[in-house]
Specification:
By secondary structure, the chain is mainly α. The protein contains 25 helices and eight strands. The strands form three sheets. Strands 4-2-7 form a three-stranded mixed β-sheet. The structure holds 2-acetamido-2-deoxy-beta-D-glucopyranose (NAG) (2 copies). One 2-acetamido-2-deoxy-beta-D-glucopyranose binds near residues 227, 230 and 269. Interacts with HSPA5.
């Protein structure tokens, strides 16, 4: 039983180090090792295995002084073991009571452990344990028995502990560690395309959290993803943009870094060149996240010819889905600037610096010059209600800028009149269904007011 205690003590020690090394982490997530087994976790598991089965155990010889115990050292039963809180080391010395020493001596003198050196393999210990059980009893006092019972309670049987570990089947990993691992996977030249895409896909989940997205900056992970936009693989471009879109979203710190890291140019290059539609969709999403609420990026976007890039995009065949998103982006940018001005008028809280930034975004003149009044008007011919809704919104937001262009566009009036009839009918049906503030009625309202303005 004494030797069993020794073995169990070792197991406890390895468990203890494992737990200690994770003590300071502020955020814990649980991941199953099959899905995300880190090298670190694998190493730890094997270490524990080795300590149990194959590694040669060195037996520690305690003295009357406290001595630090090295990992892998076995402690004779009856020793005093304590944790030094300053150093984190486990320290051992001999028990003061003579009984334990004499017991130890008896144990050593006896024929039970017929091993010559100071090193035992765990197999030796197991066979010794077997002999010990069948053979001679150590004379033990009541006190000893109580102590051994206590040790037994403290050190649970190895099999039980192993079973617990297997059942738990978890590795404690922080979000930061996961992101580092995913970035390394993505950045590694030995990863397959599939592995890289999977890494980006997983990463996207983590960077939705603002803190995580900012942590991504701290170890250069964001730049690695931005550089992924340069990949020759359309799928890598697509999923890099997917991650970036999530990371930029309402996260000024990340947006600033991304501009400095050249993300804007790379996104525009992808939109301006031949690429699969799915890639362009995600890139457009990333562009929207980067520009929103970031007037400096909007200025750069205009300087880099972003409006021309978007114009070519919406004029290409088969890109109606993208066209509606582009128009929505423009609507957002126009109204964002308008709100910044309004807010500055209403409150004293808005930082004048931000307003100055918005004032340098010369979006509306650019839109007018580059034909966006006409482009937007033509998109009203799209068949989907929600696409029309977005286009109507944008036509309204551009009204002050585009009024004369709208007037000169006979097709626009015709489209509006036909839509008026269509939504009048739908709004009537809606009303019959008991909805007096319905969707179609709202659309009809926008159409009516546009027609009124253009009369
Ligand atoms: C990505 O890989 C490159 C080249 O292999 C290396 O220089 C760089 O440090 C890596 N970046 C990160 C964040 O791991
Ligand atoms: C990425 O591509 C752009 C051109 O599309 C090039 O100017 C830039 O140097 C490239 N960056 C990297 C890191 O390869």
């Amino acid at each position: 039983m004494a030797l069993l205690g020794m073995l169990l003590g070792l197991l406890m020690a390895s468990c203890f180090t494992f737990c200690l090394s994770h003590q300071n982490l502020k955020e814990f997530v649980l991941t199953s090792p099959e899905k995300s087994s880190t090298k670190e976790a694998e190493r730890k598991e094997t270490t524990a295995e080795e300590e149990l089965d194959s590694e040669v155990l060195e037996v520690f010889h305690p003295t009357h002084e406290w001595q630090a115990l090295r990992p892998g050292q076995a402690v004779p039963v009856g020793s005093h073991v304590r944790l030094n809180l300053q150093t984190g080391a486990r320290e051992v010395k001999l028990q003061e009571e003579d009984k334990f020493q004499s017991n130890l001596k008896a144990l050593k003198k006896g024929k039970r452990l017929d091993i010559n050196a100071n090193t035992y393999t765990s197999q030796d210990l197991k066979s010794a344990l077997a002999k010990f059980k069948e053979g001679t009893e150590v004379e033990s006092s009541k006190e000893d028995k109580a102590r051994q019972a206590k040790i037994k309670r403290l050190f649970r049987p190895i099999e039980e502990l192993k079973k617990d570990f297997e059942e738990l089947n978890v590795v404690i990993e922080t979000d930061m560690q996961i992101m580092v691992r995913l970035i390394n996977k993505f950045n590694s030249s030995s990863s397959s395309l599939e592995e890289k895409i999977a890494a980006l896909f997983d990463l996207e989940y983590y960077v939705h959290q603002m803190d995580n997205a900012q942590d991504l900056l701290s170890f250069g992970g964001l730049q690695v993803v931005i550089n992924g936009l340069n990949s020759t693989e359309p799928l890598v471009k697509e999923y890099a943009a997917f991650v970036l879109g999530a990371a930029f979203s309402s996260n000024p710190k990340v947006q600033v870094e991304a501009i400095e890291g050249g993300a804007l140019q790379k996104l525009l290059v992808i939109l301006a060149t031949e690429q699969p539609l799915t890639a362009k969709k995600k890139v457009l999403f990333a562009l929207c996240s980067l520009l929103r609420h970031f007037p400096y990026a909007q200025q750069q976007f205009l300087k880099l010819g972003g409006l021309q890039v978007l114009r070519s995009l919406v004029q290409a065949k088969g890109t109606e889905v993208l066209a509606v998103r582009v128009v929505t982006l423009l609507y957002d940018l126009v109204t964002e600037k308008m709100f910044a001005e309004e807010e500055a008028e209403l409150t004293q809280e808005t930082s004048p610096e931000k307003l100055q930034q918005y004032r340098q975004v010369h979006l509306l003149p650019g839109l007018r010059e580059q034909g966006w009044c006409e482009i937007t008007a033509h998109l009203l011919a799209l068949p989907e209600h929600d696409a029309r809704e977005k286009v109507l919104q944008t036509l309204g937001a551009l009204l002050a800028t585009c009024r004369d262009r709208y007037h000169q566009d006979p097709q626009l009036s015709r489209t509006l009149v036909s839509l008026q009839a269509e939504y009048q009918a739908l709004a009537t049906l809606e009303l019959q269904d008991g909805e007096d503030e319905g969707y179609f009625r709202e659309l009809l309202g926008s159409i009516n007011s546009l027609l009124k303005e253009l009369r």
